[in-house]
Design a protein that fits this description.
One of its GO terms (cellular component) is mitochondrion. It comes from Hypocrea jecorina. This is Probable maturase. There is one protein chain. The chain has about 300 residues and is an alpha+beta fold. It has 2 domains: about 140 residues, Endonuclease I-creI (Roll); about 140 residues, Endonuclease I-creI (Roll), CATH 3.10.28. It contains 12 helices and 8 strands. Strands 1-2-4-3 form a 4-stranded antiparallel beta sheet. Strand 3 and strand 4 form a beta hairpin. Helix 1 packs across helix 7, helix 3 packs across helix 4 and helix 4 packs antiparallel against helix 5. It is elongated.
Length: about 300
């Protein structure tokens, strides 16, 4: 789990902290640091595996109606998190979040947060991390100058395959699209679709996937701040995407979606998608993939 963890956290993890009023504290505030991963409850076994990798650090996994949440927050437990991401660096712009988070962690470890100067450094960091400062904190610390948030440069070498497998486990999608088409025997066209989605701040990374896989296209959402790398050409799916993930495994419920994806590809190669019976089989498989996959099957 060590290697895929990096790419997975690039897609799903949050590095953040809270600043809370505390009259008994020397600077009148206390800090709460958090490393958080939130997944659909279908991926409870995967999140339990991640927690096990971190020596079962953190709070007991929190299960809500739809999600399961891993939270590691104590300074002692976060040591394992810091050690991991120093050894297996993040690649997306989330690396900046991690580096800022680590700065705060180090300030706390050195007890500098108990001094006004150290606390002001933390506020300056918080002002550019994730959701920024609250309006109340902005008013109380209006003289604080935010730190400069640097941009991450893409690796100059080829993206690590293990990282791509982990990132795809978090942000990848193996899907099938059925579209009405009067030119086909069944009246439908079947298209396999592999996508990777990420915030536009990582646009260059998404575009880099095109050269890495030597296929696919990039497009951005018109309504959201997201970019998408997409592969739909059957020959590329069959000869490039599927062999890659057969060698470098995705984890969690996504592995089941990949298995279904591969099965449909095999059906299409055999021409079964051109028959009424084959189309019905593909529709049935599609209806139990991704968000439609049943919870009982996801945790087999």
């Amino acid at each position: 789990m060590a290697r895929p963890q990096g790419g997975f956290s690039d897609g799903e993890a949050t590095f953040t902290f809270n600043i809370i009023k505390s009259p008994s504290n020397p600077v009148k505030y206390e800090l709460q640091l958090f490393y958080i991963i939130t997944l659909h409850k279908k991926d409870l076994p995967l999140l339990a595996l991640i927690q096990k990798y971190f020596d079962n650090k953190g709070q007991e996994l929190q299960v809500t109606d739809d999600n399961v949440i891993l939270t590691i927050s104590s300074i002692k437990d976060l040591e394992a998190v810091i050690k991991h991401f120093d050894e297996y660096p993040l690649i997306t712009q989330k690396l900046v979040d991690y580096l800022l988070f680590k700065q705060v962690y180090t300030i706390i470890c050195n007890k500098e947060h108990l001094t006004l100067e150290g606390f002001q450094k933390i506020v300056a960091i918080k002002s550019v991390l994730n959701k920024d400062l609250s309006d109340k904190l902005k008013y109380e610390f209006k003289d604080i100058i935010p730190v400069t948030r640097p941009l991450v440069k893409l690796p100059t070498t080829v993206l690590p395959s293990y990282w791509l497998a982990g990132f795809t486990s978090a942000k990848g999608h193996f899907g099938v699209k059925l579209s009405k088409d009067s030119t086909t025997i069944t009246g439908y066209q079947v298209v396999l679709k592999f996508t990777l989605t990420q915030q536009l701040r990582d646009k260059l990374l998404l575009e880099n996937f095109i050269s890495f896989y030597n296929c696919g296209t990039f497009w951005k959402s018109e309504s959201k701040d997201w970019g998408v790398f997409e592969v739909t050409k059957f020959s590329d799916v069959e000869s490039i995407i599927i062999p890659f993930f057969q060698k470098y495994k995705v984890v969690g419920v996504k592995a089941k979606d990949f298995a279904s994806f591969c099965f449909i590809c095999k059906m299409m190669k055999e021409g079964r998608h051109k028959t009424e019976q084959g189309l019905l089989e593909i529709q049935a498989i599609k209806n139990n993939m991704n968000r439609s996959r049943t919870l009982s099957e996801s945790i087999d």
